[in-house]
Design brief:
Six copies of one chain form a homohexamer. By secondary structure, the first copy, chain A, is an alpha/beta fold. The first copy, chain A, has two domains: 138 residues, Rossmann fold (3-Layer(aba) Sandwich); 100 residues, Rossmann fold (3-Layer(aba) Sandwich), CATH 3.40.50. In chain A, 41% of the residues lie in helices and 15% in strands. The first copy, chain A, contains ten helices and eight strands. In chain A, the strands form two sheets. In chain A, strands 2-1-3-4 form a four-stranded parallel beta sheet, with helices on both faces. In chain A, strands 6-5-7-8 form a four-stranded parallel beta sheet, with helices on both faces. In chain A, β5, α5 and β6 form a beta-alpha-beta unit. In chain A, 61% of the residues are buried. Chains in contact: A-B, A-C, A-E, A-F, B-C, B-D, B-F, C-D, C-E, D-E, D-F, E-F. Chains A and C meet through α5 of A and loops of C.
């Protein structure tokens, strides 16, 4: 099985972190192919940027989906996830959704830990959209200024552990999600410090992608979703996307 | 006060319907400027198309917002609404949100009537995102094939009235929303047939836009929203949008 | 258009505050007529008093409604609002409902700030009744003893600003509502101090009343609500109300 | 223990039905005193009438509460219940609340059966206000015109049984509530026909009143509720009520 | 009427506390029979233990139910309650459910106070299962180590009062439930210290059991619940239970 | 990795169906070990039976868990799941939870199809307990009498397809779950007839078990859940379980 690991951020080092973490948990027989966004933002950090990068996600998957059994949209806000699912026949997995559904296997309530307070409202909206509000213990983030997205794991280690402990002890979290692509791989470094199970987003995404492929077998060869569209004209879209809508590819 | 009435569909006749309906309820002193999308789909009819047109909405408002006191995104799925609100300082109003919030003034539960069943799940998701599920009596649509978006109001008049009556009598709706830009102006033609108040989306949008401007007075000159972003680099975006993100315009 | 601004509190100075604030945002062509309750309490401050004043509201609107295009019940607990809506054909607007529905246009979650903790449970119940719990960031009030309802805005200015800031920074409010008729006009004095949009109840009520009239056009001449009652006998009611129920007026 | 069974409808025969049903399940030692409203409507059938009768309820309990250990407001819409609870020191029980809380002991979901469709929205609102929506299987009513409130039980017996069976078999109700004072005593006539437990409102109210008194022992002699008010002036209220607010009685 | 007060904990002194408290509020004519579990744990303190003791509850009631008009499962987590209700024809009451439904009569929101933090998630789950989340002000417990279940009331009196006051003042509770069989009888010792009504679980259980019997009259002689099972074979069950399933007893 | 596939029903042919279906989707390197309950019921079909079998589940896992990396409780009602998770250090997966969480990857709302109406309320309760009510399109079952649990898939094929189509077309399901161990393997026989993705419970359970093991790596060697209990005495329990509680095994 061949899985596209698409990082909608334009930062290569984030892709590396995601790939290095995810490949350690792939089953034998799974080929994982990393790809970094060529359009967009170094790091998607709000809904406006997610709106814009979500369109690019569609352009990329329109071009690549026939070469893969599944695609991962590797940003926690899951930009373009619902739109992609309604358009393409392969399973599409989002980093945030995968982490939250995985967390539900390990305890009643998950706490989300991130490195910037700005994302609180946005991530809470993801929880609501998924219908998982009853499983949500809340969001906690460190307050410090982010100097470099690359050094968060080392510079903020203590603060992130503190936030996770508070989520368990104060908010009542039974499971911790370290949220956001830049935190992939962080679980390994801290799991001895936290008393409850920890979800790594990159691990969750690749395992949920494998599960999706295994459970769909023939889905990719048939009309798997209800909303399969008839050919449709458009104006001014990216060429691949326009061709996909008009059924020319 | 000058309000941009932006139709994210590429069909001019839909813009005409919206404008002709909305201008009848504008207050004296309000200038309403219609504009039809140059990129996108003749009629946005699902979340994938809304994802794509939502990005175009941002491009257009980035270019135009300094010339207006408010902007209306005139499609019921409110493409790009949340993203636009987080980016621009003028009030932004969406057709769907405006209709639903207005409906709340006229009764406990609103029923949504549209002309195609495909939109049921999508519109229900709008209701959930707005947090108005407790005010929602359900969705009803006519089953017939849509031959021409222009002739819906005349050809489907009887069926739409039937759906509205069922919404009141079976689903318990206290208010009816005729949903979607192509139904703007339809209220006038049928209000004697329906026993409860009817919401016209175009009317709702322009009145909510006027209300927003009246209530914000100085907002457009100050930092009105919390998520005002620092300058940010991007790659490959539409020029206006990229300049807006980098604070060059 | 002629709008009745009925203050169900018996304090004239509250009426003045409401009127002076609201008239600044009325559209040209709107005549706003203030009226102070002749029966009831100086300031309605709990559900028991709202129950009693709600009946007086019905008596007053029964007498006055044929002279107006809409009526505002100018107390945040909206005494008698639902009952009035089911009885009379003109649009009826409540201070609380108008403020909360308006707030929904400016951000995901609104925080309610008031001048006494007693109203926390009552106002939260209003939020629930409106079905807006998912949009509610919580209630905050100052703790100090209220010496004079007239001097709250000057004496408690600092404390109210502090509560509003806490609502934004701790509770995550995207919009602030200063709740209660005695706080009408307060927005103008503090909006430079608060980083998010502020809703003034009096402004919201008059704009929502105008919107309601504009969107209902013919409603006042036809059976607009489902629950229009047949003539009904009663015993011991206020004369106007009794005549209204028996269809004698 | 002495319990006031106050019927806020002005129809004596409804009081008789309530009393005759309730007294059969009172414990020895309970004295139940029936009283019929002297002001109001023959039968309260919507929220507007409940608003008006709710104020009368307060006037009556203000006058009578020192003579009783508890009071029952014997109409299913519970007019004035919350207001009365916040004002008086004896336990106050409402017909609707008592029926619904009792139903929760006998199964997961209760269905509400009444004799007129008009009350559907109003009763559903009671369910929501009680926070019992997850326990609610829905409302069913007979369609026929009500000729006489007195003859419902005999004339509509078959239709009411049919509605109850549909509630069980179609809506999934585990318990049936026959709602409204005019249906008190009806349970006995039909319980052999219905496969699930049935709640009689009058029985529920008197047993919940007894339970409340037994569980509060000293409550009536101390400040039992948080919202106990300081003396308050009012204008134009019913004399007893005004005296109660000003602590003159 | 004869009511079984079954304590699923194996500690006799807990049974004594429950019985001594409950018997003070029984109506004349009610015979209350205490019984202590012979199998299980000294004190059930989590869902795993409740799962195990819940099966023993079924064994005991299978053996005893023909001798009683109702049975109380006297542990706050209500082990086996739903299962027992679906199997046996007499009313079954649980300590937790009875306390929470009773609390709903005395205020909008109840706070739960217990003596160990471990039970927070478990009790919250009970609240959710009952569908009473909108009535729930939260859980508070003392932090101290529990040395002896018997001495909690005396040793922890101050801490429990403090928790109850915080629940009222910080969490907004209108009613306090002292949760857990070991706290039965504690209400009497502290009610002068707490400004809102207090629910004693043992009192609530016996009064709800009496109410259930009074309201079901003929239920115990007929098929009262929908899920009455046909005879069913089983392997390896406790003899009484197996016989009950196979309709041999 | 070694996974225990424990069928809590005592019917061997159900175990065979589960095993034959699940083993086709196991990853290379996974050893799946089937085991049939020696105590309990031929087919668990309500909450009372689930209560009893849930205790047996604990006895079996107490004995076996040190030989496995994960355990599957292969009945849709997930008997004993929460209790097992709080007691044992290996991941525990339930058939129902696994199916529902998997379904969330393939569409907004899942419909549950089963072969008997009796389970409607019980399965709906599972959905609620999982907090997935917003993702639930409803339950549908065939009405016919079940003659043999073994022949359901062949005898009821047409009826089950009809129920699934109704769930999609009437209830708006985006994904279908064929619920219950006796329906494992049925997906393959009908997936060409249904227009949306189908979830097979046995497939879902084994893939979620593999995912859980892959994502927990070191969890089985450390204190993975918060509620790890200190040694505890008990009376009259099954020997293995008693030893496990007292930390003797």
């Amino acid at each position: 099985m061949k899985i596209l690991l698409y990082n909608p951020n334009t930062t290569q080092s984030i892709t590396d972190k995601l790939y290095n973490t995810a490949k350690l948990v792939t089953s034998s027989g799974t080929e994982l192919v990393p790809m970094t966004a060529k359009k967009g933002f170094p790091y998607i950090s709000n809904e406006a940027e997610a709106q814009i990068s979500g369109t690019t996600v569609l352009e990329v998957i329109a071009k690549e989906h026939r070469n893969y059994n599944a695609a991962i949209i590797a940003a926690f806000g899951d930009p373009g996830l619902k739109a992609a699912r309604s358009l393409f026949h392969i399973p599409i997995v989002g980093l945030g959704e995968a982490a939250m559904l995985s967390a539900c296997l390990f305890g009643k309530k998950f706490g989300i830990i991130s490195f910037t307070n700005n994302m609180s409202a946005w991530y809470e909206e993801s929880v609501e959209t998924l219908g998982l509000k009853d499983r949500y213990a809340g969001f906690r983030a460190i307050d410090s200024v982010i100097l470099s997205i690359d050094k968060i794991q080392s510079v903020q280690k203590k603060n992130l552990i503190k936030s996770a402990k508070d989520s368990v002890e104060i908010d009542g979290a039974d499971v911790i999600i370290f949220a956001g692509a830049p935190l992939s791989g962080f679980k390994k470094k801290v799991e001895d410090k936290i008393s409850v199970p920890i979800i790594d987003c990159a691990e969750a995404a690749v395992k949920q992608a494998e599960l999706s492929v295994a459970m769909t077998n023939k889905f990719s060869n048939k009309k798997s979703y209800k909303t399969k569209l008839p050919p449709k004209k458009s104006i001014g879209l990216n060429k691949t996307l326009s061709d996909y809508f008009s059924h020319e590819i």
